[in-house]
Amino acid sequence: MHEEQSLDMKKSNNGNCAACTAQFPLVNTGQSISEAKYLITTDEEYPNIKYIGTKTPPQNHLYKAVRLACVRSLTAEFCQGRDGPVLFGDDENGYVMSYMFKLRDSQARGEARFYSFMILMADRVYLISCWPFIVSAFKSMVIQLQERANAVFQKEKEVKQQQQQFSYYSISNRRGAPISQEQFFKRRSHTPLRSLVDLLGIKDIYIHIQAQFSFVLKLASRKRIEKLNPGRTESMLYLKMKEEYLAKRHQQQQKEEQG
């Protein structure tokens, strides 16, 4: 695509923690096993077109724009219910379509985690023209993630209830000092947030997201088609006036040649 675009998915947390960082698959180089630095999706129809996914944009100007978009998307920009699309941006940092959503997490505060799918473009008109398609594609992706998260959430809640019942009977049979409110919140605050891989229980979740993002970019690029729109057709009156003008001009040229 000709315009600069960046797709990214960020968490509403600060710091270099597992919950804020994408987990790419491990690669065996023969000498060591390390995490892949990027993901590449090749277009089946046009093999020379490749979609590259990285944790952070390699270009400095894009890094600044994406970082600002992530912060605004999850802190300053809101839509009704905090679920759905929102548009914001400017000519300097680009225009962003952010689709905000939440996933159920039994270990998170409020049992919910907020995420956002974003697409950043320099062309606002082009982004708006792709709006219905992008919103529909992101909504489908979100529904799949939420269904998986809800299934994991219900399973973990059942296990937690069983553990609480067992702990209740164990505590009732022994004496001990009760946990204060301060100790409870301190213990809860030290619990690290899980990564999206652990939250959904899908090891290759970012590979699926990379493939879906590539599909969105591919179909969105097809909407950028230049058309030559013909002007107004020449009326009979215009053609008559044009013919008279050309005839007079021809007569003047003949007189000048004879003179």
TrEMBL record:
A single GO molecular function term of this UniProt record: GTPase activator activity
InterPro entries with a match to the protein in the record: FLCN/SMCR8_DENN, Folliculin, Folliculin/SMCR8_longin
GO terms under cellular component: cytosol
Pfam family, one: Folliculin
Signal peptide stretch: none
PROSITE patterns to which the protein is assigned, alphabetical: DENN_FLCN_SMCR8 (PS51834)
Source superkingdom: Eukaryota
GO aspect biological process, one term: positive regulation of TORC1 signaling
PANTHER family: FOLLICULIN (PTHR31441:SF2), FOLLICULIN FAMILY MEMBER (PTHR31441)
Protein name, entry field: UDENN FLCN/SMCR8-type domain-containing protein
Lineage: Eukaryota, Fungi, Fungi incertae sedis, Mucoromycota, Mucoromycotina
